[in-house]
Amino acid sequence: xxxxxxxxxxxxxxxxxxxxxxxxxxxxxxxxxxxxxxxxxxxxxxxxxxxxxxxxxxxxxxxxxxxxxxxxxxxxxxxxxxxxxxxxxxxxxxxxxxxxxxxxxxxxxxxxxxxxxxxxxxxxxxxxxxxxxxxxxxxxxxxxxxxxxxxxxxxxxxxxxxxxxxxxxxxxxxxxxxxxxxxxxxxxxxxxxxxxxxxxxxxxxxxxxxxxxxxxxxxxxxxxxxxxxxxxxxxxxxxxxxxxxxxxxxxxxxxxxxxxxxxxxxxxxxxxxxxxxxxxxxxxxxxxxxxxxxxxxxxxxxxxxxxxxxxxxxxxxxxxxxxxxxxxxxxxxxxxxxxxxxxxxxxxxxxxxxxxxxxxxxxxxxxxxxxxxxxxxxxxxxxxxxxxxxxxxxxxxxxxxxxxxxxxxxxxxxxxxxxxxxxxxxxxxxxxxxxxxxxxxxxxxxxxxxxxxxxxxxxxxxxxxxxxxxxxxxxxxxxxxxxxxxxxxxxxxxxxxxxxxxxxxxxxxxxxxxxxxxxxxxxxxxxxxx
Amino acid sequence: xxxxxxxxxxxxxxxxxxxxxxxxxxxxxxxxxxxxxxxxxxxxxxxxxxxxxxxxxxxxxxxxxxxxxxxxxxxxxxxxxxxxxxxxxxxxxxxxxxxxxxxxxxxxxxxxxxxxxxxxxxxxxxxxxxxxxxxxxxxxxxxxxxxxxxxxxxxxxxxxxxxxxxxxxxxxxxxxxxxxxxxxxxxxxxxxxxxxxxxxxxxxxxxxxxxxxxxxxxxxxxxxxxxxxxxxxxxxxxxxxxxxxxxxxxxxxxxxxxxxxxxxxxxxxxxxxxxxxxxxxxxxxxxxxxxxxxxxxxxxxxxxxxx
Lengths: 530, 307
What we know:
The complex is a heterodimer of chains A (530) and B (307). Chain A has helices at residues 2-26, 50-59, 107-118, 136-140, 170-173, 184-190, 244-252, 267-273, 301-310, 313-321, 352-365, 384-398, 411-419, 437-441, 459-469, 474-491; strands spanning 30-35, 64-66, 72-74, 77-82, 88-93, 151-155, 158-162, 206-212, 216-221, 235-240, 258-259, 278-291, 326-327, 375-381, 403-409, 425-431, 494-506, 510-511, 527-528. Chain A starts with a helix and ends with a strand. Chain A has 16 helices and 19 strands. Chain A is globular, with a radius of gyration of 26 Å. In chain A, the strands form four sheets. In chain A, strands 1, 8, 9, 10, 11, 12, 13, 14, 15, 16 and 17 form an eleven-stranded mixed sheet that branches. In chain A, strands 4-5-7-6 form a four-stranded antiparallel sheet, covered by helices on one side. A two-stranded antiparallel sheet of chain A has the order 2-3. Chain B is an all-alpha fold and 307 residues long. Chain B has 13 helices and no strands. Chain B is flat. The N and C termini of chain B lie close together (9 Å). Classes of the chains: A alpha+beta (530), B mainly alpha (307). Chains A and B meet through α1, α7 and α13 of A and α2, α4, α6, α7 and α11 of B.
């Protein structure tokens, strides 16, 4: 009896092992990419997350597209010219790009895509990025019909786009999915259902094959892609890996070739054991606290500056996070294009003792001291790291006698509270939508009040931003934007803490991977070493 | 019996209606909405989104819309999964949860009853203590500890089994999650069976059977087990519901596309329609399972009659 059991068990194990080896051998040019989130849609105009772009960018082709370094390069548009005042772009399109149903991709599809993106009925989350195009803003609020958008197609292979003002990052913007050309004939025929497996037509290096929600999306190489000869990987599986520790185990077991996140609590182990496969690189994002400037005492600049001075960023990045993040004393991260940064708050050069002394002085000037301590509530959304940082910050503030309460909530509740101004000091962050300092600086402008959680308002700051928007000379523009950032940082509506890094696991057999500040890695440039 | 069955089904309708109503309004009372996320959207874009999902209409109108949709079998589109309807998501997720849950349940039932009976027969001897010791461990160690340990040894060190993914329900992918799910169930069923078996073995009719000289095997199988298994049957209803609905942790750790994660993720993302769809589905499932338990109970226990 016992013997038979053991024999059966052994036979089962052997079969399983054989099965496993068989699957591995067959997958020579199959890439398994773990992504920490699942796309909300494959419709390029309905997405907003970086993890969604990973899939959509493999399936579709923009007028411009990203290269392995994350820089915008010609895509559907093979070349373009810009008018002297930098507000009219004329694109010449390739004539060898087809939708996966065989229909050629034309200038009409590009015009259609942009019009649909700004149409309020589409409700595209990233529509406001296209407000640089003439009439886009008015169309998006329903004040003008979509066909008034400043985009036209004089012939099947030419697209002309008129802008509101010079926009140095416009070429980069066109590689964002919200601006992709769409298959007009398919979308018009099937409406919202055009994205369903039965109807979807794409024009990128990969074709949609299957989507099992909560599990994976499968895409296969598009043999008709214009550059198909340079696409090495035949099958891509985008595997959903919400649980980071589980993702690491799957990576170690060889089930994943790439994963776009790591379990941060295992960073020491990873550095020691998987140094070659751990890719940590600067990323265009900033982690900061916002002060509610409509509530006393945070309407007092002395209080804001003092609290900011007391935070020892180096301790947070080196002792708490330990994943290579850089201490932040400004809003715009380093490595950003068209800029001369990073800007640092003027107290950054002072040593710790001096900062503590000055912070105490500022607080006492503002009327706070041992007899009348300042009391602050820090709000953050639930996450182990946010909690650790809030705890550290409250300990740092305590040195100057500031008392702190911590209040955490899940992410939806947190951001609803920020929107409604129901906070004193709260955790926030900004990740670049496009590679330009303006994207960060707009967060503090009165125009985007919904994003301006601090309700910061300084006419000088806003004037600099307007001035920069009309400056054609890139150097001069960078200098104006820098002045704007210095103005804001000295006013301290926010307390910058650190600049983000991207954290990827990339197996050694994956070739063609280039760490870049936008953390963009299209599959078409990757290959697998046999 | 058919009349009883139909009456019970009919009584489920007001229950479901109450659940739908309460869940609908509770979901809307929760602070934050489906568009509150790390990536804040400009107000004009948010207004467009609210219009697209009819969230700008009065709540009561949304409620009636939803209710009439449900009556027509339409659970609406998901907020988070824009390319899928809620019905499509449940249809794709439930077979996974069902296969996982039922496999775990069947294994747990067979092993649990066997271990429990064995322990009862060896009461207070080494075999009993060994089995019960294991059972207590099985209950005490949570599955988020068991799962990583199993994957570490069998998946990473020995490379015998895949550590994640569903792979269309291939046997190799099922082994670890089913084991993880089944372990605490085996433990519970073992304890339940042991307890009631000890009690039953002391009953007069068992003594009579022994006095008649029946072999132990027959006494256990024919006379003791049907009576001893009753508490297990009672446990099975809620346990099956719990396994089908609550395999969240296991689904998460092994990256399985079951339905459990929709519930939690939907609630966190304020994906109103998805949460409502899953709530209604679960409620109907639990009502149905309880009914099945009552019927099985009556078949096993002649004292229970349908009324």
